[in-house]
Amino acid sequence: MTVATCEYIPGLANVPAAQSSVSHVNGQSGILEYRGIRIEGLAQKSTFLETAYLLIWGELPTKDELDSFERDIRYHRRIKYRIRDMMKCFPETGHPMDALQTSAAALGLFYSRRALNDPQYIRGAVVRLLAKIPTMVAAFQLMRKGNDAVQPNDDLDYATNFLYMLTERLPDPLAARIFDVCLMLHAEHTINASTFSAMVTASTMTDPYAVIASAVGTLAGPLHGGANEEVILMLEEIGSVENVRPYVEQAIAQKSKIMGFGHRVYKVKDPRATILQGLAEQLFEKTGHDTYYDIAVELEKVVEEKLGHKGVYANVDFYSGLVYRKLGIPTDLFTPIFAIARVAGWLAHWREQIGENRIFRPTQIYTGQHNIPYIPIYER
Ligand SMILES: CC(=O)SCCNC(=O)CCNC(=O)[C@H](O)C(C)(C)COP(=O)(O)OP(=O)(O)OC[C@H]1O[C@@H](n2cnc3c(N)ncnc32)[C@H](O)[C@@H]1OP(=O)(O)O
Ligand SMILES: O=C([O-])CC(=O)C(=O)O
């Protein structure tokens, strides 16, 4: 007989649920490392695909390894016409995260073999998911406007190709580089809610497409990845720098959460928010100022003043939307873009999970009754 001896901790706060060497967060000092490498160094020198390789396979690739990884991903970017046809039937009013979750699951209809002991299958699934998820996000964006999806362009790198498929124009190189850095910053973050969801699904030894679909569904929520969209809606609602203080005071009085702030692990400003703020400033220098940025900076100042004592600071979702907005990306695509990046982290944890698997099956503390007699419906 197994006896539950542990105290119940809501939200499993600070409860270790796995061992992992994928990434590490020091929440007191604001440090994030992927496979031991600080995020600041990667953001300066790496690319998203190199970072994805590092996360998934555990080491930085050699030049040949990276070339072959990038080549394979370019080759697999197209999606089957049957998936495009399925997506055409999605309601254009549907949220792109729902479209993405459905499309990611649909990949399993074509590619799932559950051959989890076959390294070729594992590599194929990694390549297909990294390659096809951006194509599906861009395709839904064009299709919901009544246009045909743009085919991937084999001459373009990962970030440039995504922006090209989305806007039907070649992006400015600085915009593409900034977008690629955003992807790196969002690629992985230890055992957050969506990664945990991916790990639980992976632990049943199901197919990787189901793993990613379950993680996408979890990322969508406004307390997690969905907060980046909510931040821009909040900045629009605030409308001016003068309105910031009353907005924050009212939110605190009503005990409502201010989007883009707070974190289970970070008790200082999220290091990714610092880098994203810098990227936003870089973009504004080149393409013109955004008044929402002034609102955001004032909001950060007032939230720190009012909630800093509780360890509530800006998180990754606070400045990302300002960057995407400046790149001309619609607000409801911010979270799907987060998902494009996070596929790398989810896949890294999927590999780790199936490598040393035990199905997740925690216990619960039952709070109901026992031995209640069944009453037939006509006697109730
Ligand atoms: C990619 C990501 O997922 S990053 C997070 C994105 N989510 C958001 O930005 C949504 C807003 N933030 C939040 O809802 C929370 O901070 C979470 C979900 C991120 C973390 O939740 P938890 O670790 O459970 O923290 P919890 O909600 O217990 O907050 C601790 C205290 O700080 C306060 N607090 C935390 N975040 C905020 C916030 N955004 N606004 C106002 N107060 C906050 C809480 O009210 C609580 O105060 P109390 O102790 O007086 O009751
Ligand atoms: O770690 C978390 O709980 C949320 C987060 O910042 C992320 O997933 O990037």
UniProtKB/TrEMBL annotation:
One of its GO terms (biological process) is tricarboxylic acid cycle. PROSITE patterns: CITRATE_SYNTHASE. One of its GO terms (molecular function) is citrate synthase activity. It catalyses: oxaloacetate + acetyl-CoA + H2O = citrate + CoA + H(+). Belongs to the citrate synthase family. GO terms for cellular component: cytosol. This is Citrate synthase. Pathway: Carbohydrate metabolism; tricarboxylic acid cycle. Keywords: Transferase, Tricarboxylic acid cycle. The active site is at 263, 317.
